[in-house]
Amino acid sequence: MPWTAASANGCKASEHPKKPILMTAPKTTRQVLRALGRQSPKEQTQRLTDQILQEGEGKAAAAAAATAITRASLTDAELQAWRQDMEARLALIQQHPEQNLGHMEEAMARLAKEPLRLLAQRAAQVKANATPCQCLQCQHELTHQKSLSRTVDSRFGPFVLWRRYGWCPDCEQWQFPADHALGLGRQAPASPYLQEISALLVSKMPAEQAVAVAERFGLDLSRCFLQREAHRQGLKAQERRAQAVAELENWPDIQRLARYAEGPPLQPFTLVIEIDAWNIRERDHWGQTKALRAQGQELKRWHWVYLATVFRLEDRGQTAGQRAVISERGYVATRQGIEALTAQLYREAIARGLGQARQVLVIADGAVWIWNVVKNRFGEACQRLDLYHADEHLWAVAHELYGRGTPEARQWVAPLLQQVRDDQTSAVIASLLELKPRLIQAQQKKLQTEIEYFSNNLERMKYQEIITAREACEKGTATAEQLKLANQPLGSGAIESTCRQYQCRFKRTGQFWTTVGDEALLCIETFWRNGRWHELYPHAKPASGLN
Predict the structure, then answer these.
(1) Does residue 476 lie in a domain region?
(2) What is the pLDDT of residues 476-509, one digit of tens each?
(3) Please, are residues 488 and 312 in contact by the beta-carbon 8 Å criterion?
(4) Residue 426: which domain range?
């Protein structure tokens, strides 16, 4: 007999009933309504009264039984029934040679859900019973105490939980202390585990795909549930992030943030910061475009998402294939503007050792707003223009003059690229200025833009020392100082790859977001990447996430 709750409780049908069981067809709803309609008002009132009293007695009995639970355990009969059913199903699998270990795991996972559901229900009830019915703020005993049930969707299935609640005269509100103790908010539709899973799944993939993935792992979650819960968890993550940024307003909090559990660093280190931005598509006024345009409002669909990454240079290495990798780093991502990025980045930099760093190195693509952020919060940092972005600007001039991909373009740009690497950017600017009078007006305008680009970033274009150090490493003649220099990045590849990783979720074909929705998921994803998932979900292991 398959293991069920009824069988687990030791209930079974009588083998020899004293009277035959007469099977009668159930009455239809229409027949029931007709019968009720023939009753007098007095009879209807009495019937409803009896029904209410019976329901009240049933709830009272259920509440009493729940509050009497003092231990989370399964009975011997429940365990025996589950064990027998499990062994029988596994034996059946053994009889089919085509079924492998995967079939065994599937069967065991399905059969384990019901006993685990019962055990989780009883464990939650024990904790609810042990929670004092006191105000969460003032700790005063609640008045007008009563018991109320709620259905909780858990990892193993839904169960009913009874908890005490009452009125706090000082706070003037009804409170459920047991809900707080169990991590069940007033608006929470599910257990903390399902809250976490919803946030994690939707931050990694669209809700439609998340439904199928959750189902594959034994979780019956609807698309609407996943979307609503992920959004709610995103708002929760934003609140936690705001609290973290607010720590910068107090010097003791800054000191605590900068203090590492393992103590001060054993060796001096360089802190690297890379900053960039990318566009996300939003549609907050869905279905209103035509009407708003008729009113003279041109809607802006694309908006900037600001990103940054922070890591210690000593955590940057190479794979066997000479690909650069970073073992541990921090992330910042926001749709809320440059000021929000600045505050969040400064907080992340402090947490990653800003106050202890020997040197701070900022690498970016040359956007003016980035250097303004650096000037605002990291004024003493060494600034470096991404070498490969500088190359792109020179190639843009070559393509404008000689055509894309032509031998003439390659011949013209080659000495200029080498001059940039030799820290002779001033000579590059002089060459461009000398070229400008010989061009037509349209070309002069484009060339002037590039001249200004190199002129504004002249002091940030120092590459020769690092290139020389790398060449010495290849020859095996590098000094200790050159070994350190050789590991410094010339480009902002770390933040470029970070942008692409975020875009894999947020910039898919045909995808639109809302301003509130994209910020919520960006925040969730960043908590995960920063290895601070446990700050949102204390039950999760601190090792969760990507470093």
Answers:
(1) no
(2) 898 888 888 888 999 999 999 999 999 999 998 8
(3) no
(4) 388-460
